[in-house]
UniProtKB/TrEMBL annotation:
PANTHER family: LEUCINE-SPECIFIC-BINDING PROTEIN, PERIPLASMIC BINDING PROTEIN OF ABC TRANSPORTER FOR NATURAL AMINO ACIDS. It comes from Pigmentiphaga aceris. GO terms for biological process: amino acid transport. Belongs to the leucine-binding protein family. The keyword DNA-binding does not apply. Residues 1-23 form the signal peptide. Pfam families: Peripla_BP_6 (PF13458). This is ABC transporter substrate-binding protein. The keyword Transport applies. Residues 26-352 form the Leucine-binding protein domain. Keywords: Amino-acid transport, Signal, Transport. InterPro entries: BCAA_transport, Leu-bd, Leu_Ile_Val-bd, Peripla_BP_I.
């Protein structure tokens, strides 16, 4: 063998080794709010993903390939979510991106994934319209539109709620969408609204709104809030002597409520497909594994992230990855819609939604919500 030829043989061998090594890692991005007001949600989400990736890789990965998560902090801010999505998609060249944590950020960041033909998968976004962005957008979080009617209906049946006051954040995509869906659910059930009050992100004093609410003597307060504001709202309401049920959306389904509202956290009604009291085999296994790893109890956000990685790994098992990023992103997108999976959050499948023009777009979760009420710093299933 002459020298030039032997050199090229070495080069080809090196190339082969490099592409083999690349094929063995499936790089997946996670954009989560690890700091800031939404940090409680984002850290639970990161924990859920990290537990799932360990389990999946320990069980042989995806057809022998290991999943590697690249986790970035988007701080619960839409500008940061845009930056993180761009970095993960164009610089790190991940196969797909999970997140961001808030719908407010997803509405800003998901169009980037859609334009780059990269699957974006929300595990905690529940506002209307997120998956209408396009056919690369997925979520396994159940929408406010699906959950709130069930929560209100249960409170009407069990707690005899006949008229309610409404309080919501009017500067966030999720809290506004929660308000729209509460309003619709109340209209459908013919429940009159005594007054509608608003607040903004970062507010700490809710006395004016709650004093007005108290004067209208409602049977319940319907609250569309993220927990950073919703926790203090609960404290302020009870301090003013308002003891009626507080009916919340997804933002209030976080153990952070108990840290913020402490002994004033009872009688909060929420709905979710996940409950710590749900003792299915998949959930029992998840809760035990989570406690063993983190020495703390999981929440809904951890459970949804955990299931989401299993949903993606199920899809990937049917995909022949080529190491050509564009083709692989498309193949994953095409494989996801058919996945049916039963995990910590119960039986799951996707349903395609339409965009604003009525054309088929992204995919929402089909799952059954469970209604829960807080008692003694725990969410208890309300039968
Ligand atoms: C959204 C939500 C939040 C409560 C996520 C943490 O549901 O922003 O859509």
């Amino acid at each position: 063998m002459n020298r030039a030829l032997s050199r090229s043989v070495v080069a080809i061998a090196a190339l082969g080794a490099a592409s083999f090594a690349q094929a063995a890692d499936i790089k997946i991005g996670v954009a989560a709010a690890l700091t800031g007001g939404a940090g409680q949600y984002g850290n639970a989400i990161r924990n859920g993903f990290q537990l799932a990736v360990e389990e999946i890789n320990a069980a042989g990965g995806v057809n022998g390939d290991k999943i590697v998560l690249q986790i970035e902090d988007e701080q619960g801010k839409k500008e940061e979510a845009i930056n993180v999505f761009k970095k993960l998609i164009f610089q790190d060249r991940v196969l797909m991106v999970f997140g961001p944590t808030l719908s407010n950020s997803a509405q800003a960041a998901h169009p980037i994934a859609q334009a780059a033909k990269t699957p974006a998968f929300g595990t905690s976004n529940t506002a209307d319209g997120i998956t209408s962005i396009g056919n690369f957008v997925f979520r396994n979080s159940v929408t406010e539109a699906d959950v709130l009617p069930a929560t209100i209906k249960k409170a009407v049946e069990v707690a005899g709620v006949k008229k309610v006051a409404v309080l919501y954040g009017n500067d966030d995509v999720f809290t506004k969408s929660g308000y729209d869906n509460f309003k619709k659910a109340l209209e459908d059930l013919k429940i009159p609204v005594t007054t509608t009050e608003t607040f903004a992100k970062g507010d700490v004093d809710f006395k004016a709104q709650l004093t007005k609410i108290k004067a209208t003597n409602p049977d319940a307060i319907v609250l569309s809030a993220l927990v950073a504001e919703g926790g203090p709202v609960m404290v302020a309401a009870r301090q003013l002597g308002i003891e009626v049920p507080i009916i919340g959306g997804n933002g209030m389904n976080s153990p952070r409520v108990f840290e913020l509202a402490k002994d004033r956290s009872d009688n909060l009604w929420v709905g979710s497909p996940w409950s710590s009291n749900n003792d299915t085999p998949a959930n029992t296994k998840f809760i035990a594994a989570y406690k063993a790893k983190y020495n703390a109890a999981p929440d809904q956000f951890a459970a949804q992230a955990y299931d989401a990685l299993y949903i993606v790994s199920t899809a990937l098992k049917g995909v022949k990855l080529t190491n050509k990023l564009e083709a692989d992103r498309l193949a994953l997108r095409d494989a996801l819609p058919a996945v049916k999976y039963t995990g910590a959050t119960g039986a799951f499948q996707f349903a395609q939604v339409k965009d604003k023009a009525g054309k088929p777009a992204g995919y929402d979760a089909v799952q059954t919500p469970i209604v829960m009420v807080t008692r003694g710093n725990a969410y208890v299933i309300q039968k």
